[in-house]
Amino acid sequence: MTVEDSQRVRQVAEQVAAASPPDVQADINALLRSAQKPGWLDEAGRAMNIRYGGVRALMNRDQPVDEGVDIGPPPVGDLETIVFAVGTPVFLVRNNAVDIDSAREEAKAWRRILTDNAANVNRAMVSIGRVDVTNADRDYAGTAWVIDDGLVVTNRHVANLFAEASGTGFKFKIGFDARHDIGVNIDFLEEYGNAASDEVKIERVVWVAPESGPDVAFLKLEQKSSPVGRLKLDLASDLPVRNLPVAAIGYPASDSRFSDQRLAEKIFGGVFTKKRLAVGNLLAADENRITHSCSTLGGNSGSPLLDIGTGRVTGLHYSGTEFIENDAVPAALLRRCLQRAQGLLQQPPPNEEITVNEGDRSGGGGKVTFTVPLKITVELDTAALQSSLASGAATAPSGPAIVMSATGSGPNPLPPSPIPMPTKEQVLAAVRTARSLLANRDDVVAIKSGYRFENGEITDQRAVVIAVNRKLELGALESRGRTKLPDYFDGVRTDITVASAQDLFGLDMDEAAQPSWHTSYKKRDDLPLTRRPVNGKFVIHTGPDASWPQLGPFLSKTRKSLVVAMYDFGATNVANGVLDAVKGQAETISMVLQMGGKVHDGDLTDAEAVAEIREAKGNKFDFAPASVGKNGIFDSAYHIKVAVRDHNAMWLSSGNWQSSNQPNVAPLTNKDDAASALRLYNREWHAILEDAGLSKLYEDHILRDLEEAKAVTEAGIVSEQLVFLPANLAIDTLEAPEKPRYFQPLTGERTIDVQPILTPDNYIDTVLPFIQSAKSRIYFQNQSFNTKTVGDGYRRLLDALLEKQKGGLDVRIIFRSFGSEDRDVISNAKEYGFDTNKIRKQKNCHTKGIIIDSEAVLMGSHNWTTAGTGFNRDASLIFYDVEIAKFYEEIFLYDWNRIGPAKIDENLPPPMLAPAGGETAPPSGYIAVPLSIALGR
């Protein structure tokens, strides 16, 4: 950290103060205003200034400064010192209870908060311990806590101090004496002023996550006769919200990495390596990381981050930068890692005894058996094995087949024979074996059940799918010191693939708990979404063919008001069009928008777009950020895309107001745009309708959303995690290269039979009978087709679609290609029962449409996910109109024939998680996509 970071420290102090409970803010302000400051404030402030204040802090107040001399930022003031001392105090723990009186006298509010919630906090104390080591270069390594019966969790970087990969698992490192293992104990006491101890030996290193995964490790406690009260700590079930009061409980060390040791002494009162409780608040939270304000040091690594109000663990602390940031692994991610560890715990650990038994090599092969409590057999077979698999299993591209299995004890058991067509249960058992035996392969990202692919196309053969960072030829593997991954586990064929975002994000456990969804939305009986005749002009069109050429004129005709509900708003041409449409004094604009970051280069962020409108329109702009998330009205997204003009005309679409959805191109009239528009921009379906009744209905719903969003306590806005997905934007060999075709809008003026749809209101109840009404064919085109995480209502839709396909109807499905994610989507659909020969994937597909029997069509913003169909805010329309249905059907069939069969590209590089909280542009050959979209949620 440099002296320039004093400005960052000030910003963080202001953020911490704003996140603090009102009573804590009052304590901070009272001390700031006090004429009589305590002695510690001046002393601590001086230490902070020496560390962060730079040259200016060393100068006399009246000392002149020569022109042009850089003396750095202004010194740290009382605010920063008081915020960290009073807003994030540290308490002692005595007799497994927080010592309320041990923090600074001025931290009155935190004392009250902990007193009121003492039961929640104190019951966790006996399950949190210090990781002590013997025969090592230190006495202790960090903090650990009981996460399951006989199992504790800490950080990977803590476990790496005493554990290492070994064969098929992990072992303790050789210690300081170069002869014996490092010994590891958990002392569940280690309190200040208390000479007693409560030690339990660690008997096994169960699992240490790879460097590409979360910073977690799991250790098995030795069985002890009296573990009374040592209960496992409960994990929080929901993603925590910003500002939540939390406590980090652990063993802060006298950390040499802390920039100023005297300052650390001031903060922690000179007490180190003893159990302490540090309070603070969550500053940000998403699915991958929690940021909090609790004061921590190196020994806090592995500390549980407790929700003070419930006593549940919201995260596992793993890193910190003093006065800048503290990070934790979220509980949801911990839960998935725990499932991995529990699976490995069922397998006995390997030992050091290895015997070699040579088998009959008359067939050109042999086997090596490692004798451990679990018997692991590796067999090489170049003749008989291939003969037995003539029914369909593919051979390895180079070298003999490698067969691995896990069998019980007994005299020289044989590995199971290869299974040409294994059952789902056999594959799941083989997956568990593979996870156990490959636990220490850091090039393996995930192991899951799935199907084998040949030449990019899915087969009917189930397989153990091993996801890796990058697929390499045997020679390249050997040059890196790697061995070839096995071809079989327990007789089940393996299939090696590049990791998906799901694989990189977490652990795809077959027994993982289903996610939960929520909405507090109340249906509005006074605004009924009834099927109705719509009279007036209409423009039915598609993108990128006519996206902006139609939206631009629609906006420009605004004379009174513009009411907008939108998920993303960043395209500069749309922002300028909106500003121009309402530039007069009379026009008003109302908007509900889900706030987020910038996805595309050259676009505005949502906040920048809102700021431009606010500056131009002042109090003529009525705005509220959408209410989403744990404490919000809608589950995870305000995903609607609707604009209502002058109460009598509306635009409804599948596409947002971003440059990918509304590019400033006109391929129907500009041949230069025509050459590349279909390749570069999204396929969208749009509709403009001039009908006062329908327009007013959607306007009233949006304005009600606006008022309800204002009434909800604002939750912290956390920028959604982006993932960089591989996408060859120059050439797509999976789509036909011929000259692209663009479609003129369908325009007219007559009566149309229309069914309005909103979620959470009526999508499932309306679309289910719509699908069930099909007699001959259903054409389905949607960005999302999630058949993996399925809630009850959404399952009814999937089952209805599947029933029609199995009943012999022509059911064709197009979903959006996200490169490395495509394999999982196709495999999951096959597992659900869909005919994958009737599924195709399309780059840049962003529409959400269903065409029934060439007679009716649904179009709008609803992704086919549980949240999209039941819990988010989305808008669609069903047109019971043959002309409109055939318009969209012609476009569907053009796309279907152009994209060809669903083949995956096994040569793509792996996806990458984008830097958290940044505006980093994706590398060449990648696109930035919200993680929830990539995961089909």
Structural account:
With 937 residues, the chain is of the alpha+beta class. 27% of the residues lie in helices and 26% in strands. It is built from 26 helices and 40 strands. The strands form six sheets. The chain has a 14-stranded mixed sheet with strand order 27-26-25-28-29-30-24-32-38-37-36-33-34-35, sandwiched between helices. It has a seven-stranded mixed sheet with strand order 17-18-19-22-23-21-20. A six-stranded antiparallel beta barrel has the order 11-12-13-16-15-14. Helix 3 runs antiparallel to helix 9. The two termini are 39 Å apart.
User: Cα distance, first to last residue?
Assistant: 39 Å
pLDDT < 50 runs, ≥5 residues = 51-76, 255-261, 351-398, 408-412, 509-513, 714-718, 728-737
Give the overall form. Answer: globular
Strand arrangement within the widest β-sheet reads 27-26-25-28-29-30-24-32-38-37-36-33-34-35
**What proportion strand?**
25-35%
Query: Sheet bearing the most strands, described?
Result: 14 strands, mixed
Rg, nearest Å = 31 Å
Count of helical segments? 26
Helix content: 25-40%
Q: Mean pLDDT, rounded to whole units? A: 81
Structural class: alpha+beta
Strand tally is 40
